[in-house]
Amino acid sequence: MGSIQLCAIVLCALFYVCCAQLRREAYATVPQLIASSGYPVEKHRVTTEDGYVLQIFRIPAGRRSARRTGSTNAKGKRAVVMFHGLFGNSGNFVLMGPRNSLAYILADAGYDVWLANLRGNLYTAHKNLTRNDAAFWDFSFHEHGKYDAPAIIDKILNITGLSKIFYVGHSMGTTTFFTMISQRPEYNDKLVAFVAMAPAVYLDHLKMIANFFLKSFDLISVLRRRGYNSLSIRPDMLALFAGSFCTARQPQTDICMRIVYAIVGEDYDLNPWDMVPTLVSSMHPASFRQLEHFGKIALTGTFTSWENGLWGEVKPYKIENVKIPVTILYGMNDQLTEKSQVMRLADQLNSTGVLESLQPGGGWPKFNHLDFIFAKDVGKMVNKPLVEHIGELYNKYYNE
Predict the structure, then answer these.
(1) What are the structural domain ranges in the chain?
(2) Where does the record locate the signal sequence feature (predicted)?
């Protein structure tokens, strides 16, 4: 047997052994996850003005309601749409299961729940371009706000017949909201209110890191010259990495979460150890332009549009265009969207009279950027109180 064949067999065996440690959630699609948890699910497609095709998923009824009545009719229900963060996807809001995930808790509370996917993740495509085309990746969160979110909102309103829906965003999902309202303020009239979890708007604390990678090292330009179009890892290789390095169950031997916590803030107390490989393997691709645009915000200290590139004109987005109530939830140990930067945003929203509420996530001092999605007790700490808050905002601001 040749050495190449032997190596191939060894690698295949390693892949099998490592990936066998991953939970079934690592391989399931979002609709499969929803259905396997006992909830009804619908799949819809949205085509944007510039040709991107986005899959969005709907949970029209709660698990208990569907089983008891046999009906999944969502007509007349209050609707909530959720937008994921960078490297995320719609699965972020269901992966932790019915007890913890916001989508399930909302559905069980009687809401019509919609899960968005923003261009670039694996649930999106283009009418004319493939993912191997450089032009496919020529976007940042600017296009998420200008094209994706408006198209998704319009699709939901068209299907439901409602005049308004409720917007929930995490991290880049909040950036998407603010860029949308800056460019298309008429969408204030299509939303009841907005909940911003770990809002990514001001990033002054990351200026040194952005300067090193984008200016001194010029990493993205180097990668582009070598033919790379995006920051992505093949799903099978990501599963191999997760199965190999993300299975430790204690801090002193954990490599995987040490890397993650260096970025988002350490919180081993709420770390869901058995889910870590699955969470890592669920990461989706991102465009280089998304990273560069966030870098421009960090370097300039301004929530600015992309304009003429990383070193081009600084043109602030119009946060004053926001006219609907905004609730901000922040992590007290969030190193990515750091508290002082969230407070800067809160002050700006408060000055225009739209800040409804400002709250620390779960009241826990170690609560970090990802705890809003993946903390082992996020249902009890954040999501159940949040669903009550959403109900209060609906009662207060939606009279139909």
Answers:
(1) 3-397
(2) 1-20
Contacts of 217 (CB under 8 A, 6+ apart): none
Q: 265: which 2 tokens?
A: 């803030």
Compute CA distances 277 → 100, 183, 371, whole Å.
Answer: 18, 38, 16
First to last CA, the chain: 73
Contact between 78 and 398 (Cβ < 8 Å) = yes
Q: Is the dihedral of CA 7, 13, 19, 24 positive or negative?
A: positive
**Mean pLDDT, 10 residues at a time, over the chain (400 residues)?**
45 41 71 96 98 98 70 80 97 96 98 98 97 96 98 98 97 98 98 98 96 90 89 76 73 81 91 83 91 97 94 96 98 96 98 97 93 96 98 93
**Distance, C-alpha 46 to centroid of its chain:** 18
Q: What is the fold of 3-397?
A: Rossmann fold (3.40.50)
- Distance, CA of 306 to CA of 319 (rounded, Å): 16
Measuring CA to CA, which residue among 49, 349, 53 is closest to residue 177?
349
Q: How many helices (H) and strands (E) does the chain have?
A: 17, 11
pTM of this structure: 0.91
Q: How far apart are CA 213 and CA 187, in angstroms?
A: 35
Report the DSSP pairing between strands 112-115 and 191-197: unpaired
Residues with a known catalytic role: 171, 369
What is the rounded CA–CA span in Å between residue 366 and residue 267?
A: 5
- Both tokens of 261, joined, read 């916590």
Residue count of the chain = 400
| Long-range contacts of residues 306-312, Cβ cutoff 8 Å, at least 24 apart | 306/140, 306/142, 310/214
Q: In angstroms, rounded to a whole number, what is the distance separating the alpha carbons of residues 349 and 319?
A: 8
- Please provide the DSSP assignment of 338-381 as one string: -HHHHHHHHHHHHHTT-EEEEEEGGG-TT--TTHHHH-TTHIII
Residue type, 213: F
Q: Are 198 and 336 in contact (CB under 8 A)?
A: yes
How far apart, in whole angstroms, are the C-alpha atoms of residue 80 and residue 60?
Answer: 11
3-class state of residue 127 by DSSP: coil
- In angstroms, rounded to a whole number, what is the distance separating the alpha carbons of residues 109 and 232? 36
